[in-house]
């Protein structure tokens, strides 16, 4: 049989029809839940103390707008007159535990006084109180639970307090009394306690845990920004007494402003102290910097960097010009010297004169040499070079040339010495010039640090004056009241319409949620629809719970529901298989689902029709059928499969249950059932039994645990898969769905076991 395409591996989501079915099945829970919810709503309206809404609106100084003083030039730069950093931050401050605890402490609201008013308790506040309870020492960090006393006035001077344990003590008004929260006193109001008639007979005084009470009161306070375009904050508070609520909101505003002023004063004082400390350090640093500048200038021989640099540049230019002039003179002298040396002996050309060399000796020697040379040239026109006169003149010229060269060398030496001296002076000045940028840079850095410290010093002086002025003028509130606290005319809580609407909705949806949750969390198969929704395998029939616990639930005269159900299943098998099935394989997903019970009773029901039936206990791992019908100890399937000489007739037994019914027990439990069941003698056994009997029913091991059943599947014409209500899990249907999809069993059919007839649900029966 193939899968017909139905989704078999997922649980069907809860549909409206399913919800209607679940509600109709659990209508008592639905009705009871609805009635209880409505009654709870009515009871709450009757017993709840009325609460009023007290509202107020304040304007917070905006960081851009600031206060009215911000427009004044005198105050505009002072911190105390500037707006707050962020209005959302101020909302958090207003709704903080610290501020609320301060408010409750200022108003002495860590104690409450109640008077009985029928079934309710009415809180007394303000003028209604005949006395006041004040703490001398209150432990705000106490972890003690709330303490409750019953107050009774004895006379004008004494009263009693009785705790929950019944311990009663007498005290006087104004007497110091100690409990877990500290030391307190009960002080009478003269206008209220003039006589016992003015005091209620019995009052309840409750001392609240400071931490818990602060949190509870904060839950009743709502603070929010009214508009993104405005810096206004709306506050609302729920209180049983309008006067109490208005007092709390007024104190919240007062405490908020006071805390802001104190914070600014503290900031101003801390700022002044810090600035004084910094001024001392900065003053010393300035003095040290000025001393360092003086020492630096003295060490580097500078006064004014710009003037010194200009003087050095002028000196450098002068040295360069003089050095260049000396170099020119030396060059001219070197040229004349080279010229004379190049002439050699007996070569007497005119020596060029030098106008840039202002040396009279040299000029005179050159002039004499040139004059003598010209005279020699004139005489050579009339005399031979060997003439004594000419020779004498040659001697004179040689002497003059030697004198000129010696004079040239002397002058050049002197000029070179002067040039070297000038060069050394120039190098020294250049070195000073090269050091000037570094000196200037260091001096600039020193002056920069000095300037920074001077600015820092002036800034600190300015801020000190501002802080001093702020401290002297910090009386401006951080907020401005736009709408003073006012109470609603009627109680806003509890709201009868909203309360009953919630009660009705709860009465409708809570039972539905309970029913749906119960069904959704149920992972077990509880009814036939669960199976039909998750698989397309035909259902052979349902078997009701076997209340009497007997192995055999059907006989010829039995007319119990279980017997009739087995007869119906027998007929369904005949119809579905056209009466041609010989071998029926019975299995389940796991142990305990009733496959053995079904195998025995199916075999009995078939035998009652006159058919010859044999039932086999092929669960060789944990056999139950043989034990149930009394075949223990007898040779069975194991012996037949292991012993080729053993005949089938020797293992067939008659359980004496009904005619035509025979059985083969498991025999000895083998060490490895899988190997034995793969024997070729299994086929021989089944074929031999099919030839002798009309029906062969095989009780096998659970298919969800081991594969033994699949070894026998080829020999069966029909397979019955047993499911047990409230025992088999829904996801276990995936096993048989997978088997059907892969056609591992021939003609699989489902049997639903353990049906509770009255409600089609329940759990347990005698399992075999």
Describe this structure in words.
The protein has about 775 residues and is α/β, with parallel strands linked by helices. The chain has 4 domains: about 60 residues, no CATH class; about 210 residues, no CATH class; about 140 residues, Helix Hairpins; about 230 residues, P-loop containing nucleotide triphosphate hydrolases (Rossmann fold, 3-Layer(aba) Sandwich). About 50% of the residues lie in helices and about 15% in strands. It is built from 19 helices and 20 strands. It has a 7-stranded parallel β-sheet, sandwiched between helices. A hairpin with a 6-residue loop joins strand 11 and strand 12. Helix 4 crosses helix 6, helix 7 runs antiparallel to helix 9 and helix 8 runs antiparallel to helix 9. The chain is flat.
Give a topology summary.
Blueprint (H helix, E strand, L loop, with lengths): L15 H10 L1 H21 L4 E9 L26 H8 L2 H10 L4 E7 L2 E5 L6 E8 L8 E7 L4 E5 L5 E5 L3 E4 L2 E7 L14 E5 L2 H10 L1 E5 L6 E8 L2 H59 L4 H39 L16 H20 L8 H86 L5 E9 L8 H26 L6 H7 L4 E6 L16 H17 L5 E6 L6 H13 L5 E5 L7 H4 L8 H6 L18 E4 L8 H5 L2 H13 L2 E5 L8 H5 L5 E7 L8 H9 L6 E8 L13
Parallel strand pairs: 14-20, 15-18, 15-19, 16-17, 16-18, 19-20
Antiparallel strand pairs: 1-12, 1-13, 2-3, 2-10, 4-9, 5-6, 5-10, 6-7, 8-9, 11-12
Helix pairs in contact: 2-10, 4-5, 4-6, 6-9, 7-9, 8-9, 12-13
CATH topology of the largest domain: Rossmann fold
Which superfamily, in CATH terms, is the homologous superfamily of the largest domain?
P-loop containing nucleotide triphosphate hydrolases
CATH class of the largest domain: Alpha Beta
Taking pLDDT < 50 over at least 5 consecutive residues as the criterion, the unreliable ranges are 1-12, 65-76, 759-768
